[in-house]
Amino acid sequence: MSEHELTCGLEIHQQLDTRKLFCDCQTLLVEDEGCGLVRRLRPTQSELGEIDRAALVQAEKRLRFRYQAPRASSCLVDADEEPPHAANAEALDIVLTFAAMLDARPVDEVHFMRKLVIDGSNTTGFQRTAMIATDGTLEVNGRKISVPTFCLEEDAARKVDTKAGEVTYRLDRLGIPLIEVATGPELHTPEEVKEAAQRLGSMMRATRKVKRGIGTIREDVNISIPGGARVEIKGVQELRLLPLYVEKEVERQRSLLRIRDLLKERNVARKDPEVADLTALFAACPSKVIAGALKKGGKVLGAPLPGFAGLLRSPDAKLRLGAEMAQYARTKGVAGIFHADELPAYGIDQGHVGRVREALGLGEGDAFVLCADEPRKADAALRAAIARAYDALNGVPEETRDPLPDGASAYSRPLPGAARMYPETDVPPITIEAARLQRIRADLPELTDVRVARIASSYGIHQQQARQLVNDGWDDLFEEVAANKDLAATAARTLLSTLPELERQGVDMSKLDEVALREVFAALSAGRFAKEAMPDVLALKAKGKSVDQAVEELGISMMSSDEAMSIVSKVVLDREAFVREKGKGAVGPLMGVVMAELKGKLDGKAASELLRKEIEKLLSS
Predict the structure, then answer these.
(1) What's the chain's average pLDDT?
(2) What mean pLDDT is predicted for residues 115-141?
(3) Angle, helix 514-525 to helix 475-482, in steps of 10 degrees
(4) Engineered SS bond to 112: which of 80, 147, 193, 424, CB 3.0-4.6 Å?
(5) Whole-model pTM above 0.85?
(6) Is residue 329 part of a domain?
(7) Domain hosting residue 610, numbered range
(8) Intra-chain end-to-end CA distance of the chain, in Å
(9) Least confident window among 432-436, 494-498, 576-580, 604-608
(10) Residue 432 is assigned to a structural domain of this protein
(11) Helix, strand, coil shares, percent, the chain, to 5
(12) What is the DSSP string of 10-56?
């Protein structure tokens, strides 16, 4: 993929480790549900009298929102029953610090704005956000990438449940301060996108004022290709998957452009939906979806798509417009749709397909789409699917998409426009005084390159290892463990090699957070097991076992020096002739034998020293 085939920009949202932005509540996620409240949210007009298109799509869903308000991590401000307090000064300082690290220009006065959000994630119906600095730069692969905006905003509530017509949120996350930083659309390869995200993340962590762990940092990536359109994949949490999301979005856009060209070749023109009631054709259909819908009083509705045959899902699966249509249909509350290119299947046989084609008057090059559900929902879903089909005449629609675990993405809503922003009248402006900036600039954190060089030099590891530790966010934990210099190499190997290998083996890494890793490293430092057993101990720790349980289950408790010496002595004596032939050169060949006999119950360095002494003892006798 050349740099002319892809244009990307990144937005990074990083939680700050302070109190909440507009109240004094702690910023800890809790399991307590607390008291509850229920809201419905409606879109409002901007200053110019416009309503944001993304907000309109959310409003059409007519959802009800239930909120859990745990006492330990929420208050009346979060419930929108009390005006916001003064903006958190420490959070503002952190954003100013980060902006200074990228040579950005701070604003003279901070003004908070309201960003319209009516998906229920904010009780107010909007998110408060403020521009703090502009015009920063980031070096990526020897190039200067612009970082035009640095914002301070409040995080959204945490979604905990979804059911028909209602979404439940918990207010513990609502109001946690976020840095929102955006690059210019100047990244041109999937690897460059990952590199930019890594460097921004490592510089944020260098402030020592950001939260760590799953969910505390999220990336939005904006992607376009020549002839395509800007698409935002919103809320990527796994850095390693960023290149995959970019690659799959490029493939998707190329596919849509190919579909556009084929539709033009076939002279397909946009038509108003011709929705027909086809329920009578499916009275005895064995399809579980259709039978279930009919049992609940639903209908089977269908519509023709003249000229679309083979484009909804091509035999090689490279063209999949039907999947795009289904994603739009699901926003109307249905489970999905059926289309001509995937049938017969799902209990719908060729006889049903033939009767549908006859009822809709289809020719050889035509396709159709079906939806089975309650009549109102089925009609809305079918019309959304048909509209998406005809949007293919224009190629790639601008939209926001949700990341999926496999690196693909799914339609969420249209891209928002300028109509979603309007002034916040409850938070007064904040003047950024020169003395404040001088104080911040006088105490800037260690920059990434300086930190990499210092870690490599101080702990005797390769500079590439040090850079990877910093990029992956393991540098703080590494330095903590490597304060015991004997553990520096083991710590680097564990964090950079062992953990990724365990993940490739399918180990659930969610329990191997920094707290768990500190416990394992502390046990290693205390001599409760040998470093060779680290992968096995971590694998059991990931299954919820304590270090003591893992050591006991593996049978790797460290043996006494006398017991170890007895084993090493026997290895040497059993191979006396070999030892006398090789002399001190026998140490290397015999280390594997010794470690196998010790079964991970003695550190390799200590075992090597014992072996050397036993060989010298034999040779001197």
Answers:
(1) 90
(2) 92
(3) 20
(4) 424
(5) no
(6) yes
(7) 561-620
(8) 68
(9) 604-608
(10) no
(11) 45, 20, 35
(12) EEEEEEBSSS-SSS-------S---EEEEE-------TTS---HHHH
